[in-house]
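Protein modeling request. Please complete all fields; requests missing the sequence field cannot be processed.
Requester role: graduate student
Desired output: 3D structure, token encoding
Chains: 1
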Amino acid sequence: MSGPLNREIHLASRPDGWPTAENFRLVETEVPKPGPGQLLVRNRFMSVDPYMRGRMNDVKSYVPPFPLDAPLDGGALGEVVASEADGFSPGDVVLHGLGWREYALVDARSARTVDPELAPLSAYLSVLGMTGLTAYAGLLEVAGMRPGETVFVSAAAGAVGSLVGQIAKLKGAARVVGSAGSAAKVERLRALGFDAAFDYHDGPVRDSLKAAAPEGIDVYFDNVGGDHLEAAISAMRLHGRAAICGMIAQYNDTAPPAAPRNLALLIGKRLTLRGFLVGDHGSLREQFVQEMSDWLREGRISYDETTVDGIENAPAAFLGLLRGENLGKMLVRL
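Delivered output (334 residues):
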């Protein structure tokens, strides 16, 4: 093989339950050359996200499954090495969707230039990127949180959840409660301004939530599903709303989920449970970036990142994410 090498991670087999390292393969290929309308990008950071677990299954969903024996994909940020497209030059830093590889051949129409002077590069994959917009749109547009309300966030120490809680406080929530998977994460939530937080391992979620929000909740931002969703439905007040972002508790299950078992409560309480995808809320992007940039500049928002180095360690980073080993956004530096 001549010329520089490109390393990429392929899906070698489909997981049955929890993924393992054997489901991935590190492959070396030649660095591609861009054709008309294309960019060659040397990736610097890539994102691993819980939704990627669903794409490893060969089932019909809102996004096609990952093909076998081909590179996975996902959010990435890199430097343009060569350009055959108007408006892009070598040295530009672009955001695109072809992660899991060191060099990406990107259709220029699907790349967006970012300003490396405005924020650290990794922020465009976390607080200023899809992660931040998911938190912002889910809380404010999907759940329609209003000042004075009580908000509950599951997986609250994760990339999205930690931002949801802080945005809720900045937008006037009376009380914000978070659940997380360790005592250290609970402490981090309190440091981020959550009014109450609990470790879901410490007892039934319903009991912990009742102790943290004895008068009930108005808004639930769901990243977990299962017993967290059941507890939130029980705790919701009249006309409560839930933004259903993810259900990580059941992504690796091979049997149907046991909860929620209390959906009948939706009727009398007139509750709204609404699933959403961040891609449907692109109209908010400009407003979100402006507001989030202001909050960051003023020191009113904090964000956490867990960074793993090397493309060869991307599968381990993803598996660590599913096990909750990250604080904030899980990223791979290439």
